[in-house]
Amino acid sequence: MSPHPLQRLQSPSRSFSLLLHVLGTLSFGYNFYFLTIWDTPFNDAYGWHFQFLTIIGLLGALLAFVLGILADLTLSRSLFAAKNMVSVLATPLEVVVALLYWGLSFIDPKLVFDGEFTMPLHVDLGFHMLPAVFLTLDLVLLSPPWTIPVYGVMTLSTALAFMYWYWIELCFTKNGWYPYPLFELLTTPQRILLFSFSALLSTASSVMLRKVYGLLNGYEASREQRLKQREKVQ
To answer: What is the pTM of this model?
Structure first.
């Protein structure tokens, strides 16, 4: 099966593509297993650990890589396309998670995590760094270029950001506390600004990833591909 003209390596395939997707799935799966044995109040709380944007993003990463494995084993273009559709949302989200988590942790770790609970460094990296690394490698090496326009990404990012806000407020009404200590410190207008900033950061992340893809795989070819895609739509 011939890859997309701008795609650097063969995918779906039973070689490097399968190896990367298996390694990523094992990493993400271990993180979910860790949550089941980690003794915290979130295990019994409404919303479980899915109160955290980190875990929602991790679920998206796991789904994308499981689809990637299935596509590699079956050489199915439909499963490959499904993997890429999930990655369009999961990859920028995981980059944002990494940037926000490590940036806020540098300022004050208590803004993002209750100091009462600790996790090993390799688990911390597994939650807040490796998903972004695996998904970015998948994007750059094993995927065709994204054709979704920037305004589409911004619309999706804004909708998802405020859906997440609604979700954590619902969890707050059930549990009486927020998953991130930072939310306890903010007023409602400040939370609006925070989620708006997160949506903009997700959009910027998508633009940055697209530029990285173009830098490694060809700006001109990527531009021509987008023009051809628009012509087909018209």
So the answer is: 0.88
